[in-house]
């Protein structure tokens, strides 16, 4: 790989940006496709979309011969706002599914290492906790505190960062009031359709454990089949 191409790929990786290195196996020439770029006119555009979703590299046959697609996709993250019972059930499930999980909650009565492993927990306000690890397009956010003082900021930040999933706990009435607050805070109303509330798949979940399953299902669906909600 050319040094300039490698440097560009390394830079994208450090900034948690997805890319595909396209290698022509006939002459070993290479070029790079960024996820955020407009590649709609490329003959492999549909293949790129599928590879970005699956994260799998592999060989593809084209009219000009075989090419190898080296896919570089940031590991998906789940940021849970609220160290509540739902979160206690959701953390191990999400980790088994391959997500890197962070739980954020400033309330010391909930945010304890007895309830959550130290590496997962950030006992701080979201405004502070997200400074070192800002949200991005490969992060899912689930706000489950039921407290606007804690939930609203990360929801705003998640919509602005184009997180692949943004969900919030609460009834439809609660959500309507939430949208009013978010709009007053400067959120773009055209993005509100991306906010999953009430949170999780509609499976009739009742217990914290069942709600955790519903939330994880929504996260995985948004990650692997985003077109289903388009």
From TrEMBL:
Pfam families: XdhC_C. Gene3D superfamilies: NAD(P)-binding Rossmann-like Domain. Residues 78-217 form the XdhC Rossmann domain. PANTHER family: ALDEHYDE OXIDOREDUCTASE MOLYBDENUM COFACTOR ASSEMBLY PROTEIN (PTHR30388), MOLYBDENUM COFACTOR INSERTION CHAPERONE PAOD (PTHR30388:SF4). This is Predicted sulfurylase large subunit, molybdopterin cytosine dinucleotide biosynthesis.
């Amino acid at each position: 790989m050319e040094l300039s191409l490698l440097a560009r790929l390394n830079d994208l990786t450090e900034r948690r940006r997805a890319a595909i290195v396209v290698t022509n196996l006939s002459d070993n020439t290479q070029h790079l496709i960024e996820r955020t770029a407009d590649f709609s006119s490329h003959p492999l555009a549909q293949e790129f979309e599928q590879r970005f979703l699956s994260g799998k590299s592999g060989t593809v046959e084209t009219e000009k011969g075989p090419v190898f697609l080296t896919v570089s996709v940031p590991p998906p993250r789940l940021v849970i706002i609220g160290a509540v019972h739902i979160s206690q059930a959701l953390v191990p499930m999400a980790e088994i599914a391959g997500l890197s999980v962070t739980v954020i909650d400033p309330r010391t009565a909930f945010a304890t290492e007895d309830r959550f492993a130290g590496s997962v927990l950030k006992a701080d306000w979201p405004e502070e906790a997200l400074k070192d690890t800002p949200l991005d397009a490969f992060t899912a956010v689930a706000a489950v505190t039921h407290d606007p003082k804690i939930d609203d900021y990360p929801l705003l930040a998640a919509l602005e960062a184009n997180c692949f999933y943004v969900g919030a706990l609460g009834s439809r009435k609660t959500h309507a009031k939430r949208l009013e607050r978010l709009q007053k805070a400067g959120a773009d109303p055209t993005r509100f359709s991306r906010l999953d509330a009430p949170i999780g798949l509609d499976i009739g979940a009742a217990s914290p454990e069942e709600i955790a399953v519903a939330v994880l299902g929504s996260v995985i669906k948004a990650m692997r089949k985003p077109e289903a909600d388009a």
